[in-house]
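To illustrate the input format used throughout this study, we show a single complete record. The first block contains the structure-token representation of the backbone; no residue identities are included at this stage. The design step must infer an amino acid for every position from geometry alone.
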């Protein structure tokens, strides 16, 4: 289980990730830990939470915190799900948390998150988190996110604007780190670096065929204008967060789910995301994933591969398929929200 493996801190016998652990869990396959998990004292935690309650939002927040912060298992699941959410999903996620529907989320509502997403039995890690005692409503602010969202004493309210900003910043931060990882610190990616990133989480057995396409179809020795900038990369990430909408617009554009060419592909992306993909990115994607060489991408050649990739990236069981996964999250979410409603006795 990813959380247990990456979490490097314990406090009051509960396991926590630091913000650095969280970023590493996204970027790295596994971690080779040389040191045992650190048991924090109340004084150390208080200092972290004081700092977290004063920090400014921004797209280097998690890197700024580094190891000076605590993320609970429930919050880890929450952060994972929002990492791949399209912008249209932000408002739904906010409304989910805003149980009484008064347009802001208070700490009490945020603590219901545990009920909402922490309940899925198959995702609860064996050690550490199962014997975690539930946080009672009167408990002190005890994680970095709580201190950041609601202040040191849990007195602040989270508005939609702030929530949105947080999600955008987190997505941007992870994208920037991934870009730098694959561009090896340079300000553009070569097309082969981009391909490496694309194929990083795809099914390894198929990768040799993709690399073969790459070698045959993409000319060696590239000039700078053919390499991929961070903006082009971000546009592609935005697109992969909107795969469901993209699949839908492909269906609208092409009859009977036939393979689509670059022009139609571009149109479908524009419809789904409102943005364009750059020529370099589109051309690379087509050259790599077009396995039968008809200059078109079929559902199986592209959407199937990308859905699988998202799941692998999140280290979720790949066999279920992304649609089922989100359906499952949604169902659990609704169930949790209903239970939470019952508990608060809210009339809604
Ligand atoms: Ca509320
Ligand atoms: Ca094809």
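Output of the design step:
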């Amino acid at each position: 289980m990813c959380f247990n493996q990456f979490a490097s801190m314990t406090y009051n016998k509960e396991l926590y990730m630091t913000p650095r652990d969280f970023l590493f869990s996204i970027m790295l396959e596994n971690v080779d830990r040389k040191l045992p998990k650190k048991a924090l004292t109340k004084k150390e935690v208080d200092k972290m939470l004081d700092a977290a309650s004063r920090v400014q939002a921004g797209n280097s927040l998690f890197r700024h915190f580094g190891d000076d912060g605590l993320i609970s298992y429930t919050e880890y699941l929450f952060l994972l799900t929002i990492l791949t959410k399209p912008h249209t999903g932000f408002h739904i996620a906010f409304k989910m948390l805003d149980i009484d529907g008064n347009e802001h989320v208070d700490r009490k509502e945020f603590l219901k998150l545990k009920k909402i997403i922490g309940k899925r039995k198959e995702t609860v890690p064996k050690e550490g988190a199962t014997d975690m005692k539930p946080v009672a409503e009167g408990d002190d602010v005890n994680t970095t996110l709580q201190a950041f969202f609601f202040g040191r004493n849990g007195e602040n309210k989270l508005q939609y604007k702030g929530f949105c900003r947080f999600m955008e910043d987190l997505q941007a931060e992870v994208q920037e780190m991934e870009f730098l990882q694959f561009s090896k610190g340079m300000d553009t990616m070569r097309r082969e670096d981009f391909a490496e990133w694309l194929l990083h989480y795809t099914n390894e057995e198929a990768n040799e065929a993709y690399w073969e396409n790459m070698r045959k179809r993409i000319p060696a020795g590239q000039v700078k204008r053919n390499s991929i900038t961070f903006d082009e990369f971000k546009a592609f990430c935005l697109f992969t967060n909107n795969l469901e909408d993209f699949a839908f617009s492909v269906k609208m554009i092409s009859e009977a789910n036939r393979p689509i060419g670059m022009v139609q592909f571009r149109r479908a992306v524009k419809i789904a995301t409102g943005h364009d993909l750059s020529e370099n990115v589109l051309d690379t994607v087509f050259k790599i994933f077009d396995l039968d060489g008809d200059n078109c991408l079929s559902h199986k050649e592209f959407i199937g591969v990308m859905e699988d990739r998202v799941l692998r990236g999140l280290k979720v069981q790949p066999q279920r398929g992304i649609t089922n996964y989100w359906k499952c999250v949604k169902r659990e979410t609704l169930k949790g929200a209903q239970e939470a409603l019952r508990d608060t006795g809210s009339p809604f």
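Structural context for interpreting the output: The first helix runs from residue 2 to 6. The longest strand covers residues 9-11.
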